Amino acid sequence: MAKKDNNEIEDNKDIAAEGQVAREQEVSAEEELREELGKEKDKFLRLFAEFENYKKRTAKERIELFKTAGQDVVSAMLPVLDDFDRAIAEIRKSADGNPDIVDELLKGVDLISNKFRETLKSKGLTEIEVNQGDAFDAELHEAITQIPAPSEDMKGKIIDVIEKGYRLGEKIIRYPKVVVGN
Q1: Which of 66, 82, 118, 120 is the most buried (most CB within 10 A)?
Q2: Where would I find the beta strands (DSSP E) of the chain?
Q3: DSSP string, 90-140
């Protein structure tokens, strides 16, 4: 009987040990699943953040594309604006011949020029103000040539403005072309 009790005790120990092993395996399987879930959750969050960044980047690129397209159109119109200025200057020079006809012609060209300027202004175009005697700034002006300054105080200053400069919003799309005294 003692032998039988010993066998029963041994069997109970084996069963208890097997139960312990099963519980440990269950706990380690649960830990593995939690760890795997954590990894997948982390992977999901990274992908989600990456996708959000992608959406922001493409939206920004789209806005830049529209700005660039608008800039190209406005830049293409600047020579027309220059032609209006030259036409008005020539009409004023020829006012000696027949003042009435010249006045009417000048009014018509002025109306068209002003309408064109206002349209471009509504799109964000502004003229860069440059006057004779202003200090030359390489960040804002394009020096076409340098000539001897008529006086000592005009050295390094703008002598003449050859072509007006323009900004579209905050960006300079054409630098004013100037003659600088040296």
Answers
A1: 120
A2: 125-128, 142-147, 158-163, 165-168, 171-174, 177-181
A3: HHHHGGGT-HHHHHHHHHHHHHHHHHHHHHHHHTTEEEEP--TTPBP-TTT
| Per-residue CA distances from 149 to 134, 143, 164, 181 (Å) | 13, 14, 21, 4
Q: What residues are paired with 163 via a beta bridge?
A: 177
pLDDT in tens, 90-146: 888 876 667 777 788 888 888 999 999 999 999 889 999 999 999 999 999 999 999
- Between β-strands 142-147 and 177-181, what pairing exists: parallel, antiparallel or unpaired? parallel
Q: What is the pTM of this model?
A: 0.57
What is the spatial distance between Cα 108 and Cα 86, in angstroms, rounded to a whole number? 15
**The CA-based dihedral angle spanning residues 157, 178, 147, 159, taken in that order and rounded to the nearest 10 degrees:** -50
Q: 125-182: which CATH architecture?
A: Roll (2.30)
Which token pair is 163? 């072509």
Domain ranges, ordered by start, for the chain: 125-182
Task: Let me know if 172 is exposed, middle or buried by CB neighbors in 10 A (0-12, 13-18, 19+).
Answer: middle
